[in-house]
Amino acid sequence: MPEVDRAQLTDVSGSETAREILRVAARLFSGKGFDATSVREVVEAAGVTKPTLYYHFGSKEGLAQALLTRPMHRLIDEIRAGLDRPGEPIRHLAEQIESHFAFCREEPDRARFVYGLFFGPNAPGLSAEVAVYGGRLNELLNEAVRGLVRAGIVPEDRARRCAAAVQGLITFYTADYLYQGANLEAGLARRLVEDVLLGFAAGRSPAPVSGAEGDGPSRDP
């Protein structure tokens, strides 16, 4: 699997102008699609000139990469740090789910753009990076599930199904939030682990998870 060049992680979003361009691009790319959005539309909506966009990002493709690369590395680093902290494996899993939810809550337009890269048509020049990030996220999820296996919470022969169930839940709830207008309420990550994933428990009921406040969608009446 190809590696992402760390040189691509230069922070181009240090100025307010660059941040505004990123916000506008995320909204347009996620709403219209990357290919259907022109540089002219981005700069007009952001109130800047084309040379300004090119100064900060080099090209439209560079702008798309900025929306993907640094945020995904932050997400992966956050999940990695959570797994490395001492704690119960159930809590580690709840924190990992919560990290995905927090990523979406932080900047929904950016999350919709990234979601589209993972599940939609390939974006020019980004397919290899998307594959790298997807692979790393899967590895981290599998690592969390292996922690449950070592603790005797999930039988080894059900680990793959457990990981698939967690991935499905993350995808469902993030998509419901991003595309269906669901509201986020605190505690979903914890409840998913306690109420759903513990269906894989190997003959004992672990203690309830503390901390790891997760969010999930609930609709207004």
TrEMBL record:
Gene3D superfamilies recorded:
Tetracycline Repressor, domain 2 (1.10.357.10)
Q: Name one GO molecular function term.
A: DNA-binding transcription factor activity
UniProt keyword list? DNA-binding, Transcription, Transcription regulation
The UniProt record lists the keyword Transcription: yes
Domain of life the protein comes from: Bacteria
What PROSITE patterns does its record include? HTH_TETR_1, HTH_TETR_2
Concerning Pfam families, the annotation shows:
TetR_N
Keyword DNA-binding appears in the UniProt entry: yes
What are the HTH tetR-type domain coordinates in residue numbering?
15-75
Output the InterPro entries linked to this UniProt entry.
Answer: DNA-bd_HTH_TetR-type_CS, Homeodomain-like_sf, HTH-type_TetR-like_transc_reg, HTH_TetR, Tet_transcr_reg_TetR-rel_C_sf
DNA-binding region boundaries: 38-57
Show the PANTHER family listed in the entry. HTH-TYPE TRANSCRIPTIONAL DUAL REGULATOR CECR, HTH-TYPE TRANSCRIPTIONAL REGULATOR RUTR
Q: What is this protein called?
A: HTH-type transcriptional regulator AcrR
Q: What is the lineage of its organism?
A: Bacteria, Pseudomonadati, Planctomycetota, Planctomycetia, Isosphaerales
